[in-house]
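Pipeline run #58 for the internal structure catalog. This entry was flagged by the ingest filter as a single-chain record with no existing model, so it goes straight to prediction. Upstream metadata was stripped on purpose; only the residue string is passed forward. Reviewer on rotation: M.T. Logging verbosity set to normal.
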Amino acid sequence: MNETNEQPKKSLSAGFQKGRGFVRSFLHNPSLIPALFLLAAVCLAAVLLWLLWTFVPRAPVRWGILSSCTGLCALTGLWVYRQRRQTDRFADELCETLDALLSDQRPRLSHPYDDSLASRVQGKLMQYYEFANEGRLQSRRDKETIQGLVSDISHQVKTPIANIRMFAEILQKHNLSDEQRNTFFSTMTEQIDKLDFLLQSLIKMSRLETGTFVLHMSERRLNDTIARAMSTVWTKAEQKGICLSADCADDVSVQHDPRWTAEALGNILDNAVKYTPDGGSVSVSVRPWQFYTRIDITDTGIGIPEEHYHDVFRRFYRGEEAAAMEGVGLGLYLANGIITRQKGYISVASKVGKGTTFSIYLLS
């Protein structure tokens, strides 16, 4: 008895499974969908005709209903045709836009000021294209910057390394007196110090450009930072007989990073001492303003031509008048970068042969 009941259930389940598979395969075949709609339309028309001729005895009413249904079907068909045309046009416009973007060309927008779906989608695609293009341009600029940096570094380290190698060969292959050896060792030490200074400057520059250094901003007294910066050049100034002076009230304090700000001020002071003749003077004065605190570093050095005011802040820049002096052209570049990242700025005013004033502006 149980076997008899189970057999129809299995047959019914198998039938459902076959029917479900047929419907699924039918719906997944797009070419059969128009045929399905045509069949449904024919069946609906047949049922409508049968109902009219069976339940509506009067011919005028019958033909009126039939005409209305025919008109409604025609309008529906036109609406479907129009929607299909709009969909095709929408797809064509998107394909043209994508083809242009893939070819790295700016696409021609058919309706740039319309609020249509195509215009909105094209606008989003253009935003993505501009974003991606800006990323490519930035990557190209970074690559060019790195190439220029590598070239500059190789050029800067070439001279001290060549000098060290030359002096080492002389010390190895020649019989020299103790005095000559000491002279060569002293010269090699100077070249090693120069190379070490260059590498330290390059490390600072790399940290500055990549943003890996961290500013610790706090409200600190400015005279402590200035004293720290002046201590780095005091010995050089004494050797040249240069008078160093500072004018800063004890109660002047600003938001700044003492370590990095002292580094920036020290670089400017080092330049001032370096390019000031023996017996000159270098002074630091502080003037608080409403929004900024101004620090003036004034020297009586060789001066800077006005056309080179902006050039002195470029990486590795050295003017013709400074070619005979020691240096690599990174001090002012680093100083400007440090002050700029503290939302400040540096200006310069100079007269050739009379001196230069670098003005540092820090937010009060």
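catalog note: The chain has a mean pLDDT of 78.
catalog note: The chain has nine helices and seven strands.
status: ready for reviewer M.T.
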